[in-house]
Amino acid sequence: MYNLLKGKKGIIFGALDSKSIAWKVAERAHEEGAKFVLTNAPVALRLGTISELAEKTGSQVIPADATSIMDLENLVEQAMEILGGKIDFVLHSIGMSVNVRRGNHYTNQDYNFTKTGWDVSALSFHRVMSVLYKKEAMNEWGSIVALTYMAAQRVFPDYNDMADNKAYLESVARSFGYFFSRDHKVRVNTISQSPTVTTAGSGVKGFDGFVSFAEKMSPLGNASALECADYTISLFSDLTKMVTLQNLFHDGGFSNMGISTAIMDEFMKKDEKIEEPKKEIKE
């Protein structure tokens, strides 16, 4: 450990269970000397095991619905009171698609579900920053990070309306990030992570295929949840003070690949199986 976050205070959204990236970030932040509060929606707190994480990291859990300004205001006020001052870092790791859960195809959405998913997954990021901004709750050179996925830029058919949510999330990071950086010297970035085996991600149709394809396409392979946590810690630290308004790909090189030899080899094998051996014609 490097004491990268020694003396820093934060809020971590979205830790559900030990598979969650937010869970790994909390563990790593604790190891690097930070103090923080954990938060998630009340229903998620009932489903997950966040109390174990709180005990392990010496943290308090504050329930908050990220679609409620009142809940977020209460969260920020309590966090500053518990931690004894302004906030240095925030992780937004929230995402949910009701359409995906209900098996609705992208071309046949229930638009009430679409609005709910957008509200939880994307607009919540604007709300979080709005509350922090108006309350001047962030210290100068603080850092706000949200997790995203490359489906915001490229087509992954079964990622469904979550792709639209992530695109909106990334836009909010840039747009709100400008004002936060200009007015309070607070950095705002998104991390576009490899497909990662989490409780939330596993609900996407064909997810195992996503993971396998990305592993073969990426020259370094897929980045794990723990490796994503390490990268997030670097963005919370003072080592990245001049990095803001960025969508940072943490995907083993996948985002710059056209094709890999591993993928080509797979197709070549299939072609060889399809071709029937030529038979000699004897007279």
Structure, briefly:
This protein is of the alpha/beta class. Helix content is 46%, strand content 14%. The chain is globular and about 65 Å long.
Elements, N to C (H/E): EHEHHEHEHHEHEHHEH
The share of residues in helices is: 40-55%
- Please outline the major beta sheet: 7 strands, parallel
Structural class: alpha/beta
* Order of strands in the sheet with most strands: 3-2-1-4-5-6-7
What is the general shape? globular
**What gap, in angstroms, lies between the N and C termini?**
78 Å
What integer value in Å does the Rg equal? 21 Å
Give the class-level CATH name. Alpha Beta
Q: Write down how many β-strands occur, each being a DSSP E stretch of 2 or more residues.
A: 7
Instruction: Tell me which CATH architecture applies here.
Output: 3-Layer(aba) Sandwich
Instruction: Count structural domains.
Output: 1
Can you put this structure into words, describing what you see?
The mean pLDDT is 93. It is globular, with a radius of gyration of 21 Å. It has helices spanning 21-31, 42-47, 50-57, 69-83, 98-102, 111-134, 162-184, 207-217, 225-236, 261-274, and strands at residues 9-13, 35-39, 60-61, 87-92, 138-148, 187-193, 247-250. By secondary structure, it is α/β, with parallel strands linked by helices. The protein has 10 helices and 7 strands. The chain starts with 8 loop residues before the first strand and ends in a 9-residue tail after the last helix. The protein has a 7-stranded parallel β-sheet with strand order 3-2-1-4-5-6-7, with helices on both faces. Helix 1 (21-31) runs parallel beside helix 3 (50-57), helix 1 packs across helix 9 and helix 4 runs parallel beside helix 6. It has a single domain (9-274), classed as Rossmann fold (3-Layer(aba) Sandwich).
